[in-house]
Amino acid sequence: MTELDVSPLARPLITRRQTRKVFVGGIAIGGGAPIVVQSMTNTDTVDVAGTVAQVKALADAGSELVRITVNTAEAAAAVPAIRERLDALGCDVPLIGDFHFNGHKLLSNFPDCARALAKYRINPGNVGKGSKHDPQFAVMIEKAIEHGKPVRIGVNWGSLDQELLASMMDENAKSTRPLDAAQVMREAMVTSAIRSATFAEALGLPGDRIILACKVSGVQDLIAIYTELARRCDYPLHLGLTEAGMGSKGIVASTSALAILLQQGIGDTIRISLTPEPNGDRTREVIVAQEILQTMSLRSFSPLVSACPGCGRTTSVFFQTLADKIQTYLRAEMPSWRERYPGVENMTVAVMGCVVNGPGESKMANIGISLPGTGEVPVAPVFVDGQKTVTLKGDAVAEEFQQIVADYVRATYGGEPPAAHLRPQQKSIVIRPQREASDRPAPAHSERGGD
Ligand code: SF4
């Protein structure tokens, strides 16, 4: 056995946990399927037009499942119309109904709603207290069986079954080696999820129609709970940090927790529960979810731009502007590129600020540009698949680089003949960017390579 055989470098980086496979509409979750990105609307479901618009926006951004609140009779009555309008728009994203307190009544009284939804989310802490709990939970499961739907049993620590928690606290107090309160709470969450799933199967729901979730807002709690949940069952798991928060805090906390679990192979579908800024874009949570999966090499959704952070060697914000412009351009093009240029989602682009790491990083990307830092000759060499091709300079660097990226996509993923500026070390190249009316006039020519 060689040193390499026992080295972590020689092992698979991530081995996914083996689970049952559950279909939600046409989307497979678990059983080796790609990890699914999902999201949730924040519109009033009664507002059919508003909810349709937001579901469509989330789906267009890449959400493969979208959850909507079904909290009242009026909301349940609106669900079939929402489904019909989405279908009419050519948007077939499966809809998940989020039920609390009255799901047993709504699913019974609104069979068209029950049929229009692709999955029911059931919170075992919110299905009724005392003697009502089991019968009301059973009604929801019976409706899932009747309509052939899967369920997510979604425990949340903010609504954890208090009777279960109290009885486990009592048991713990009698133990010779009692756990602390936080440990009992974690155990109660795992127990609530697994008991509910076992009960659902006993009622007749097939085991391959059950997904579990146990959401908390603390990163360490989430990791501990999901690690234990994964050890005790083979249901697919829906990962998410609940109440993650706003802005960078929400993104960092969600990424910290999910990355550790995903690295252990745990997690079959994810949702990032970001609080949008006032009037902020709800689709941000979809982009963040995609970026977590893509930066961990678990899935590819859109070409990613690597950019250096900048430092004292860069005195202008030009390279930051260029990196942002290219990333925005790539995202905007992806809806049409995805169909026309299979594999383009794996493309990498580098935008670097100076000669220190610029050429090296650019060579490792599919396309990279190394911009001039302070005191450097004001030229920007471009690298395509590791080879220097052209050197740009002048006022139209951004437009020309964007054009090179577009030409690379057409040649590499669309089979078109490569443009001259995609070949190594051309002496004299003319790049004709597709310009917008508001842009500056194009220069007579671009600079040649090899300087
Ligand atoms: S590549 Fe250059 S500009 Fe960018 S961080 Fe490194 S040294 Fe600074």
| Mean pLDDT reading | 91
Tally of alpha and pi helices: 14
Sheet of most strands:
8 strands, parallel
Distance between the termini: 49 Å
Write the layout of secondary structure elements.
Elements: H1 3-6, E1 22-24, E2 27-29, E3 36-40, H2 48-61, E4 65-69, H3 73-88, E5 95-99, H4 103-109, H5 111-116, E6 119-122, H6 133-147, E7 151-156, H7 162-174, H8 181-202, E8 210-215, H9 219-232, E9 238-239, E10 245-246, H10 247-263, E11 269-270, E12 274-275, H11 284-295, E13 304-307, H12 318-340, E14 348-352, H13 358-364, E15 367-370, E16 380-384, E17 387-392, H14 397-414
Iron/sulfur cluster binds at residues 308-311, 313-314, 352-354, 356-358, 373.
Describe this structure in words.
There is one protein chain. The protein has 451 residues and is of the alpha/beta class. The chain is built from 14 helices and 17 strands. It has helices at residues 3-6, 48-61, 73-88, 103-109, 111-116, 133-147, 162-174, 181-202, 219-232, 247-263, 284-295, 318-340, 358-364, 397-414, and strands at residues 22-24, 27-29, 36-40, 65-69, 95-99, 119-122, 151-156, 210-215, 238-239, 245-246, 269-270, 274-275, 304-307, 348-352, 367-370, 380-384, 387-392. The strands form 4 sheets. The chain has an 8-stranded parallel sheet. Strand 16 (380-384) and strand 17 form a beta hairpin. Helix 8 (181-202) runs parallel beside helix 9 (219-232) and helix 9 runs parallel beside helix 10. The longest helix is centred in the last third of the chain and has 23 residues, at 318-340. Iron/sulfur cluster is lined by residues 308-311, 313-314, 352-354, 356-358, 373.
